[in-house]
Automatic annotation (TrEMBL):
Organism: Mycolicibacterium diernhoferi
InterPro entries found in the cross-reference section: RmlC-like_jellyroll, RmlC_Cupin_sf
UniProt protein name: LuxR family transcriptional regulator
Length: 114
């Protein structure tokens, strides 16, 4: 059993994001390429995010702090602290509307080319 303080991790990575030219920082909380479940903490400063990209498969975002916008070509959804967003299975982008921290959870099929 491993216990991690998401509050402390969020604080640490938001500081790193503020210092980074990209305005973001990430940390794998659980899993990795050899696991079917992967959880990544993403810290983003206001105005920064992840450009339009393919869906990683089944995924959700849990907003820990701040406000974000998850969008596709057709629609967009805003989330704030405490919100849980289902990531669409189409191309999408994530933008921080204010300094924010989210947990991205991805469930991937395991196979020989993972």
């Amino acid at each position: 059993m491993e216990k991690i303080s998401l509050t402390a991790l969020a604080r640490e990575h938001l500081e790193k994001a503020r210092a980074a030219s990209s305005g973001r920082s990430s940390h794998t909380v659980y899993g990795g390429h050899e696991h079917s479940l992967r959880q990544v903490l993403l810290a983003l400063t206001a105005g920064n995010g992840l450009d339009d990209h393919e869906s990683p498969g089944e995924a959700t975002l849990q907003v820990l702090q701040g406000r974000v916008r998850l969008s596709t070509e057709q629609a967009g959804w805003e989330g704030s602290a405490g919100d849980h967003l289902v990531v669409p299975l189409t191309r999408h982008a994530l933008a921080a509307l204010e300094d924010s921290v989210v947990i991205l959870t991805v469930a991937k099929k395991l196979g020989p080319h993972v």
